[in-house]
Design goal:
It is globular, with a radius of gyration of 21 Å. Strand 4, helix 3 and strand 5 form a beta-alpha-beta unit. Helices cover 46% and strands 15% of the residues. It is α/β, with parallel strands linked by helices. It folds into 2 domains: 255 residues, Glycoside hydrolase/deacetylase (TIM Barrel), CATH 3.20.20; 62 residues. Helix 1 packs parallel to helix 11, helix 2 packs parallel to helix 4 and helix 5 packs antiparallel against helix 6. The strands form 4 sheets. Strands 1, 4, 5, 6 and 9 form a 5-stranded parallel sheet that branches. A 3-stranded parallel sheet has the order 10-11-12, with helices on one face.
């Protein structure tokens, strides 16, 4: 009969083999087998105490810690500004990764930052300045749907039942898609009307305030970037409004933090649906050094640093998570 000690040794060797194989796959994929090394930019939003059935893409604190540990062990985690500098000279190391957060949620500061600090991992936080100490209407919408006692609601001439979590999730997905595709002012009106029908929920303390932002900015290995003033999708608003989103968010953050803001994350961020070449020019003219999108892919030498692609939520098991990164290195840049 095989002893527990022998079984433990076999499991240990299997684990070493698995880790070594993952390391090799990531190395080969990050340079597309003997080519130029590429960068994966990971995007997070919220970090929650437990999974939220209405926002299934948001990560839990425990899962976030596991993922940062995997990245620390198997990848070279760089700051985004350092990554941009190395991209310009084709000097990225293999398995290069940068970590980003969008919007400016308070849990980024309260729950994610201690994990990043403990593991000495850099990250960039793209902050929507109009949300500081306030809230997003989209988050208010989610919480209003969660807590509503309405049994059904109509949007775009379609009736949605709201009896179960599954019903509510289906409605949220369809309503969000519809509202983000129409003109901004009309979308804002319809969103406010729906929240009124559903019954407004309390979402105080959801976003960072200026004090949290200043403390975050003063933390070692942390960078702050702009993410608009009111998170307006640039292709859905006038040139004047888009210019304000790009320029004023930078000015506001620089006034609060007394430092230069070099990076921009386009609100919603999918090129060319949510921003186009005219908005890329706005970002350049505003004095940013780089910008990130939500298009899926990696970044390499010669790619447009004002349309850098990122990778969002995917499988949460270790092998699936790391193989997802490996596959994304093969996806094209700009």
């Amino acid at each position: 009969m095989i002893s527990k000690r022998i079984i433990a040794k076999i499991d240990s060797h299997k684990q070493l083999l698995s880790n070594g194989l993952l390391h090799l796959i990531l190395t080969l994929c990050s340079n597309r087998i003997a080519g130029n090394n590429r960068l994966n930019i990971i995007v997070y939003h919220r970090v929650l105490p437990e999974l939220d059935p209405l926002q299934p893409d948001y990560i839990t604190v425990d899962q976030f810690q596991r993922e940062i540990q995997w990245l620390s062990k198997h990848c070279n985690v760089l700051s985004l500004s350092q990554s941009v500098t190395l991209l310009k000279t084709n000097s990225l190391p293999p398995r290069a990764v940068a970590i980003t957060f969008d919007d400016g949620y308070a849990d980024n500061y309260i729950d994610a930052l201690p994990i990043l600090n403990f593991l000495n991992v850099p990250a960039t936080f793209f902050v929507t300045t109009g949300y500081l100490g306030q809230y997003s209407m989209w988050d208010l919408f989610v919480e209003s749907v969660r807590k509503t006692t309405l049994k059904e609601i109509v949007i775009n001439r379609k009736v949605y039942v709201l009896k179960t979590i599954k019903d509510k999730l289906r409605f949220l997905k369809d309503a969000t898609t519809y509202l983000k595709e129409i003109e901004y002012d009309l979308s804002a009106i319809q969103l406010a009307e729906m929240i009124g029908q559903l019954g407004e929920a309390d979402i105080s303390d959801l976003m960072m305030d200026e004090g949290m932002l200043k403390s975050l900015s003063n933390t070692e290995r942390v960078e702050i970037g702009a993410h608009g003033v009111d998170h307006k999708i640039l292709t859905r608003v006038s040139t004047v409004a888009a210019t304000a989103e790009v320029f004023e968010s930078k000015k506001t953050l620089e006034k609060i933090l007394f430092r230069t803001i070099s990076g921009q994350a386009y609100p919603n961020g999918f090129y060319p649906d949510d921003f186009d070449d005219s908005h890329v020019k706005l970002v350049r003219d505003a004095g940013y050094e780089y910008a990130v999108s939500t298009n899926l892919g990696s970044v390499g030498f010669g790619d447009d640093l004002f349309r850098m692609k990122r990778i969002g939520p995917w499988r949460r098991d270790k092998v699936g998570f790391l193989l997802g990164l490996a596959v994304n290195y093969w996806r094209g840049g700009s």
